């Protein structure tokens, strides 16, 4: 019996679907408008939510990622909190790992760079690559397995047993041609022969997509004794049954024990936990803003389809009433409407999925580089698609069944007259649509103005025909400051001899690298160095740095060849630092004392040799070092001859096309040291373009959403006005017949649209003001409540609304009274 009922129900459903298809074919304009509107809303939301899910919401593909935590050093005396992300010291990590019971695993890692060549140094040219030094338990904690060979054993952090390396799939393919016999072979890493023990899977990477190799972090006596240098990153996984609060309490207890055991280096220091997931927290404000915007587009699309369905309900009210009078039950009518609405939603969803796939492929190349774990593929996210489709289906099917619900409720045969229900509901929905469109337009306009302001910011140097490349000198080959300085001098001498090279210089961290190297500064007038001394940034440069960047020397002199290691230690400062420390004095000749927040034991980007006191010999113009929107920080520039850094960037300014010149420059580098390669070779113009890549993408996407919303809004207003004109055609005909002026009819026909637009604009302005605080963190050089933006956006929305009303109102003035009255 149940099977027969199911068969009959399926037959009726197929009949309803076939009938619904015929009804949609009889109204192609309605079907096309509804399906394309749904497709736009579903496609945009699915694409945007899939990107957000991959960047923010999807857990990294690690073992138990919800139990993974970064561990940072904190110090209340120095006012260093977890937000400062101070890395732990190696010695403290060793003690934490040995004594902790709250973590079942704790590993250390450090971002590093290496020069890698073939086994003999001749079968493959040296290439400088990004690598990671890790504790041997790193891969086991993340749940990663080698695709070929193996990963590290626990004893391979010991000195003498650490001569091994694991390759990433991309580097293995690029540098070694995907040779499956690579395991067991030797490669030269910074001149040291290391044995390849494994190759990682293709889809594995950790934070940086371009990481090429992983090597063990050697734990020797020097590593264990480093407590003053905060130079490694630590990642821990909570033991089963342990809470975050318990782990935090244990770290605080261990910090107190270490403070008593090593008061000179550990007094006042503790540690704090930060969850690994979610990733890319810096992208969260912009992504949430875009998600809200694309959600508005979906809501507007549903409102528009709702208006279309309500208009169709009014047109089919007689049909529903007649069918009821002929014996159709309320349930039968509802099932018919559900079938038609569901068919409409399915067709729109299918087109929307195709649009989402196309949008992802278009957007992916323009996505800014982000640090994520695991590959973010250009795929449709099934979970997000399911939620979007469910919300859309519910909206469409609910609104689509209104005619049947209304007819079942009245039970009266109405074959004449018109319903005012659609007019009231449609007007309310349209008012919301106008308000949302205005809010999107205001936000998009603010972002575009912000982008315009960013692109007009003077970075403090000329980026045209200027190229930067990273040069990392291994400590084993260049152990002292004199060797590093000689290398830089010889490299610059050779590069300047290259034809079409007009200038060249070396700096430890180039502009817009995103690194902040700091030192506490003391000037005469302070009693003694203290923890409260202000922190300034510092750079190490060669004398030709200003000429190569074409930056301005505001006062004094630049570095000279005579500012060598045996000369008086000198420094340059930027204009911001001069105003901050000597607002009414000449800073030239002033003495400053620097206490660097790191040491040569930390990493090679710190100077190999530093002095206690420096004399200011010049003031240079402010140079943007990080982001165009950031306030310029106080910067001290030190001489590379006096304070050389093994980590450096070579800056080359050329006169013509730079490609062949750069190849020659790299050959000159190989001539100085054949085991040294280059990394991150790119023009500074490209660097500046990348600095505005994320704001540019945000503004473009929001403008696309705003334009789509305005178009949908215009369609909705056009539909409402057309409906009102059609409903009042007889009235307009009579008024024209008795002498009413066409202009009066035009004003009457547009009054409803204008009223809806004005009410929606008022609501939209209020909503934009409420969201101003959220937008304030995303704009630059313009207030989130800028009155000009509000007024212009409101005027545009009102103009679009009036334009959408124009044609239906014009048709109302062209009504032939005799034709209408004769039809009546």
- Strand numbers in spatial order across the main sheet: 2-3-8-5-7-6
Distance between the termini: 54 Å
* Percent range of helical residues: 40-55%
Q: What's the number of extended β-strand segments?
A: 21
**Average pLDDT number:** 81
Which regions are unreliable across 5 or more consecutive residues at pLDDT < 50?
A: 410-422, 526-531
Number of helices: 25
Main pleated sheet:
6 strands, mixed, barrel
User: How much beta, percentage-wise?
Assistant: 15-25%
Radius of gyration: 34 Å
By helix and strand content, what is the structural category? alpha+beta
User: What would the principal axes of the Cα set say about the shape?
Assistant: elongated
Describe the protein in words.
The protein has 25 helices and 21 strands. It is of the alpha+beta class and 824 residues long. It has a 6-stranded mixed barrel. The two termini are 54 Å apart.
Write the layout of secondary structure elements.
Blueprint: H1 2-26, H2 28-57, E1 68-75, H3 90-99, E2 103-117, E3 127-134, H4 138-142, E4 148-149, E5 164-167, H5 169-176, E6 186-189, E7 192-199, E8 211-216, H6 221-225, E9 233-238, H7 244-261, H8 263-266, E10 269-275, H9 284-315, H10 317-325, H11 330-363, H12 382-400, H13 402-410, H14 421-455, E11 466-472, H15 481-496, E12 501-507, E13 518-522, E14 535-541, H16 545-549, E15 553-556, E16 570-574, H17 575-581, E17 591-596, E18 613-620, E19 635-639, E20 647-654, H18 658-672, E21 679-683, H19 684-691, H20 693-727, H21 729-737, H22 742-770, H23 772-776, H24 787-813, H25 817-823
Parallel strand pairs: 3-8, 5-7, 14-19, 16-18
Antiparallel strand pairs: 1-9, 1-10, 2-3, 2-6, 2-9, 4-7, 5-8, 6-7, 11-20, 11-21, 12-20, 13-14, 13-17, 15-18, 16-19, 17-18
Helix pairs in contact: 1-11, 2-9, 2-11, 2-12, 9-12, 9-14, 9-20, 10-13, 11-12, 11-13, 14-20, 14-22, 14-24, 15-18, 20-22, 20-24, 21-25, 22-24
